[in-house]
Structure formats: C-alpha cells, structure tokens
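#structure-requests
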Amino acid sequence: MFIGLDVGGTYTDAVLMDGRKITKKTKVPTDNDNLFDSLLNALDPLLEAVKGKNLERIVLSTTLITNLIATKNVDPTALVIIPGPGLNPSTYDYKVPHTFLLSGAIDYRGREIDPLDEQEIKTCAQKIKEAGLKRAVVVGKFSQRNKKHEEKVASYLQEEIPGIRVAMGHQVTGRLNFPRRVFTSLLTIATQERFRTFYSEVLKLLEQRGISAPLYILKADGGTISFDLSAKKPVETIFSGPAASTLGGLALTPKGETTVVVDIGGTTTDLALILSGEPLLASRGAHIDDKLTHVRAFATSSAAVGGDSCLQVQDGLLQIMPYRKGAAYCLGGTHPTPTDAMRVTGITDIGDEKQAVKAMELLGKDLGIGPQKAAEHVLEKTVQRIAGEIEAMFIAWEQEPAYRIWELQQRKKIRPQNLVGIGAASPALLPLLGKEMGCSALTPPDADVANAIGAALAKTNLRLTFHFDTQRNFYFIEETGVQEKLTDIDSLADAESFSMRRLKEEGERIGISAKEEPELVYSELFNMVRGWRRGGRLIDVCVQFPTGIIEYLEEGDA
C-alpha cells in the first residue's frame, strides 16, 4: 500500500492506495502558517486505516520551498563568488545585499591559475560577521573541477564566525554554467534550515504513530528523493506541486495520449503538457523568478488565477487579482471570488448560496449589473484568462527540444486537443474552458485528489552524477561522495556505459526493478591539452532511472 500527500496552497490532499485502487482519501484546508498541522489532519485518517497492513512508502509533494522563494521568505544569506577571468559578475543580479567578489581562479581542467587573496577573505569574513549573518554560500567558477578555493574560503568563514552555516557550489551541483550554479546554491542554503525543521517534525509524527515506511519527497522532474537527501538539497523539491499534478493527470488518463493537464486550484492554475504519454521536460532546468537553475523539472507553468482569486472592480472593469484573500465569500471569506460566481450559476454546490449571491451583488453594484450577470461575467473572464495562459505556454513550450522532436515525429503542430482537468475547481470550470478553446475537456474520477495520486504512484527514482578524470586516473560520484580508482575509461561512450552499470547496481540495492532501463540525463567531455598533445579527458555523466508513475489507473478501478 502507498500513501500520497500533496500540500497545496489551498488544500492538502491525501490518498491511501492498495495497488491501483484508492481505499481512502482526505482533503483538508491548508494552513500556510502551519503546514505541519495541515499535513497531520490529512494524514491521520489514512494512518488509522492502514493499521495492521503493509505500508510500503509515503510520498509527499509540498509547496513549502516554492512558497518560501515566491514570498521572499528565505533566510538572509551572504553570497561569496570567485568568478575568475572572462566573466563579469555584475551582469547577473542575484538581489543579495551582502555579495562579495573574491580574486582567484581555477581553470576548466581544475588547475589553480590565480591564488586566493588572503586579505580579501579576511575582509569578507569581517563584513559578514558585522552584518550578523549566519548563512553563507561560496561558489567558484569550475569548482566542480577543483574544490580547493571553495573549501578554503568556507573553512575560514567557519573558523572566524561562530555558528555560521556554509554551503559550497560543488556540493550542490557538478554541472557547468556558473550563473545557474550560483543561483541554485544560493536557493539551497537559504531554504535548508526551514526545510530541516519541517523534515524533523514529519519524522517525529511518523515515529509517534509507529510508522516505519520510507518517506520520499516528490521532485520537480517527477522523481522521488529520500527525505534525508531532500533536507540537503531542498531546492530539488521546488515545483513539487506541479510535478504531482502532471503525474496525477498521467495516472488518470489513457496511456500514450497527448494531453494538456489543467490543475485549477484555489490559488493558481498549473499547466503541464504530456506528449504521447510522456511529460515534457524543461530543457534548461527550472525557471525561478527571472533566472534559470540546475534543477531538472517538468515544463510546467503556474498562472495566478484560481477558484479563490480575489475579484475587484477598477475603473468600471472587472479585475482578477493575482492573489487570494482567504476563502470564498460563500465559505466565510470577505472578498468575492470565482467560486462565488460558480455557486450562483449553479455549476457547483460548494458553500452557502445566499452568501455567494451577496458577493456577486457587491461586485455587480460596481459593474452596474445584477448578481446573475456579474457571476456570468466573472466566469467568462476567468475562463478567458486561463485560455490565454494555455496559449502563452504553448508558445513557450515550442522552444523545448523535446517538443520539436515530437512535432517532427507526429508531422503536426499541436494546440490543445484534449484538456484533462484536476484540482478542486476543475469539474466546474473545465467544460467552460473546453468550449472556449474548442477542444474536448475531461474531468476524470478522483480528479479532486489527483495531485496526491500522482505523488503516491511516482516511481522510486535514483540519479547519479559521475565525474571522471582520465589523466589523474580517478572518478567520484557527486551524490554519494564515492571516489575510486579509474580503469579502462578513455571515451565518452566508455564513461556512459560505466555509469549506466553502476546506476543499475545501486538501483537493485534499493529495490528498483532490474527491468527498469536507466536514461542519460547529460554527458560532457573536455579534452585536456598539454603542448600539442591531448593529456587526458574530463568527463561528466549524469544518469538516472526514468521518472513517471508505477502503474496506470484504469477506468472503474477508483
């Protein structure tokens, strides 16, 4: 049996699944000021139902990291950069008040070509100490080739500033692209402590209830990561919610189809594209604010419109605001929302009808129309807004290599043909959205807890990143810290084959089926030249077991 949990911005959903059947599900309001209580209220009924049975695992999808970053509620952090020559750091504004640039350089081979300046390090440490900062991240260009500079600066900061936490870029990601490594490292250290607090509370809860099943977090690419590893790299869990909705849509629709998943929640509408049964991946990593990261993610998008979006009239025009101010008016809130409009028009039975009418009367008064017309106008504008977001997402998605390959294979350009709606507001709004866009619209059974289903059925995932140095005759694995002697590796093909074999071995050790075929995430080769001859090669290879769902729900199973 599996448990899937999704802590969304408006609701927290949970499902208990026995094979392909949902045996119990819960939906409770999310208290964003206390996610732990929301998790507890959703999880407890399932834990009671599973007593005496074999619970294989629990998978959690959470908006915790997404919300911390979106609301800028991250811990103050000092950013220490060692950019080396050829890169102007002022080109990249990380919006960090305490940013320090140090001299020194490592080249692409991992050789020190410019030593660190001791006085600069001392000055940097003094300023961080005076600012009262307790977190810092140190990132050097090509630190994944040689971590010497990062470790020296980090060690000095830890010696001079009692209690400071320091993260280093080479610990977060071994991929090239210095600006992305800086931003990914910064987000990692800035969210680590809050995630660890949440992590320890969840473990304490499970221990108190006698649950020993392994606990996983859903990553942005639909894979799972162990809870202890996620505490080290919490940024991997950003967009965990959209990943859950993508997998939930995949689980609730026929295998192999091309579909747009539309997750209409209370706060946002999340969008994802499934091409011939495969979710589209963002080729350049997760996009956070206006910057790219090294976080592998589905090509999802989130629009600030949902069932609880705050409605206002400005200069005689209806405005759907990009935020919510509590629950819908018909559910005890203080501001009119699309949910109130749905209640007035009879497409949902959620909430108090009289209060919904009152909300539309308040809105209609400013628009110069009655409550029924106001409700119809709200729904029209809401649907048009979501349709516009879908069209904009397709324009963006067309730049993804996977989309272009699919388009060539299918010999056609796709615009939405099938919409699959999940989320609390989908049953009411999706038929209107399908009509607006001229395509079929389906809201499958159990769509209200599809995100939790997606989390429950997410495949156990393992990723390993290998760094080979043929001249120094060794390799190390980024995720495990393993470092060993190297033999019989000279080409990129050799390194890829070796990495695949090691991943399969590790996969079998943690219970991943031997039938699962690994996939290549990326591989990079650099020839090292000494004089006029090649002196060796630096090779980076990242492999993983494919993400996706364990098995498909079939019609009538739920």
